[in-house]
Amino acid sequence: MSRPTRRKDAARTIAFTVLREVWGNGAYANLALGQRREGLHAADAAFVTELVSGTCRALGTYDLIIARASGRALNSLQPAVVDVLRLGTHQLLAMRVPTHAAISATVDLAALQIGERVAGTVNAILRKVAAHDVAGWLELLSEGSDERGRLALATNHPRWIVDAWAQVLPADELADALAADNVAPSPCLVVRPGLADRAELGGTPTRWSPFGAHRDGDPSAVDVVREGRAGVQDEGSQLVALALARATAPAGPWLDLCAGPGGKSALLAGLAREAGELLVASELQPHRARLVADNLRAYREPNRPVTIVADATRPAWRDGAFARALADVPCTGLGALRRRPESRWRRKPTDLPGLVALQRDLLSTAIRSVAPGGVVAYVTCSPHPAETVEVVAGATGVTVLSAPEHLPEVPDAASGDFVQLWPHRHGTDAMFLALLRRNA
Ligand SMILES: C[S@@+](CC[C@H](N)C(=O)[O-])C[C@H]1O[C@@H](n2cnc3c(N)ncnc32)[C@H](O)[C@@H]1O
Questions:
Q1: φ/ψ (deg, to 5) at 430
Q2: Do 234-438 and 10-136 have the same topology in CATH?
Q3: Which of 90, 178, 229, 265 is deepest in the core (most CB within 10 A)?
Q4: CB-ligand 1 contact for 361 (6 Å cutoff)
Q5: Distance 261 CA to ligand 1 centre (A)
Q6: By the 8 A CB rule, do 299 and 277 touch?
């Protein structure tokens, strides 16, 4: 029997390579995509981006579909074959690729990238996937599920995240909040206060932050960004930094004790300078501290910000040395799922205990770092209650301030004394903010 002629498709081959890097080697999809997309025509680059991002976002749902269609557990298939099937499933169920083209291009991809021997299996499984549209598959997979289970499938979220959101959101907002995680945000720029004017950013001014603007396109093509007088930062991050700067606190230097890569440091440094104060930006990882220094490079004397490498659980400074401290702690990042397509499936509830222990430690350092009367902003890019209110509840020697009163212009942001922003309400990442004053 003659061998079929296989057609190489550059865009699909790149998408497959990126997917292998993400699910085989733990790469971040956005970074891997950025490197591989270079040199492609705009239409091909957009196709690869949709193929990779869409596949990563819906991965858990697609895996259930592939398992059902193949009648096999996925771990009985070669990992590269699973990735090819995921790409094929996305084309069949979520892109406007005709069924025949989606199947034949994916089978050719499998034959050329993995081996002719897997072509038949891939072909047979994809034909079964193509037997239903996405609504049909969701109906089949949802049989016997409760409402949250159905929502998890329909919005491509793991169940544990849906359950966590349900703890902190009104029931009638849950579906909107989950849907908002599936819409990639437009790039948001921010000025370094005192070094650039917002008008220099171009684009559309951010709704509440006086420092930002939404602007499509490559940020590094914008003059002020190239010059280090502006950067890229979600509006939510701008707002939490602004709230700390607005709090009433004694005179004295400001500390950012988890600074890398330096987005909030860059905004705080300018606000501190305007208040006649100095910002110290501290970061554990040397390579991330270098990113902080780069973000701060345009600031000059007076009060030129200082970057240091330090483990904030063993602070390199004396107790009470600062007037304000930002503890923007390492977290699950569940508040930025819309930016990182793969992360909802990579994160596990078992990540929480280790992160929470570190968050408690870092918050306790932050509190000890400010003088009595000084103010700490505890910030996470996660709305998960274990990382937010439950960590703050364990803090001692502080008075909780009303964070919403420090951002009065932002509607629907109050969660008791805390600020909780949401993509579906505010168009920002789901940032959490608590403001705490150290007791005398
Ligand atoms: C959420 S990120 C901070 C983001 C940053 N504030 C910004 O806006 O660009 C948390 C940072 O804390 C750092 N980190 C983790 N453990 C730390 C520790 N023990 N001491 C200091 N920094 C730490 C991580 O390396 C990471 O860069």
A1: -85, 75
A2: no
A3: 265
A4: no
A5: 8
A6: no
Average pLDDT over residues 302-323: 96
- List residues bridging with 307 in a β-sheet: 281
Task: Give me the helix-helix angle, 29-37 and 10-25, nearest 10°.
Answer: 150
Cα of first residue to Cα of last residue in the chain, in angstroms, is 86
Q: Mutation test of ligand 1: which of 283, 313, 359 has the most ligand atoms closer than 8 Å to its C-beta?
A: 283
- 158 CB near ligand 1 (under 6 Å): no
CA distance 173 to 216: 28
Ligand 1 binding pocket includes 237 (Cβ within 6 Å) = yes
Ligand 1, atom 17: closest residue by C-alpha: 284
**What tens digit of pLDDT does each residue of 205-260 get?**
999 999 999 999 989 999 999 999 999 999 999 999 999 999 999 999 999 999 99
3-state SS, residue 427: coil
179 token code pair: 């849907």
Residue 1 binned pLDDT confidence (cut-offs 50, 70, 90): low
Distance in angstroms (rounded) separating the CA atoms of residues 347 and 333: 9
* Residue ranges covered by each domain of the chain: 10-136, 144-180, 234-438
The closest-lying atom of ligand 1 relative to the alpha carbon of residue 295 is 9
Q: What is the pLDDT of residues 176-191, one digit of tens each?
A: 999 999 999 999 999 9
- C-beta 232 within 6 A of ligand 1: no
| Ligand 1 center to 284 CA (angstroms) | 7
pTM, entire model: 0.96
Listed residue (72, 79, 137, 157) closest to 346, CA to CA: 157
Active site residues per annotation? 381
**CA-closest candidate to residue 316, choices 288, 290, 284:** 284
For the domain 10-136, what is the CATH code?
1.10.940.10
154's CB contacts (< 8 A; 6+ apart) are 138, 142
Residue 39 CB neighbour total at 10 angstroms: 9
Alpha-carbon span 203 to 159, nearest angstrom: 37
Q: From ligand 1's centre to the CA of 19, what distance in Å?
A: 27
H helices present in 275-388, as ranges: 286-295, 343-346, 352-369
234-438 fold: Rossmann fold (3.40.50)
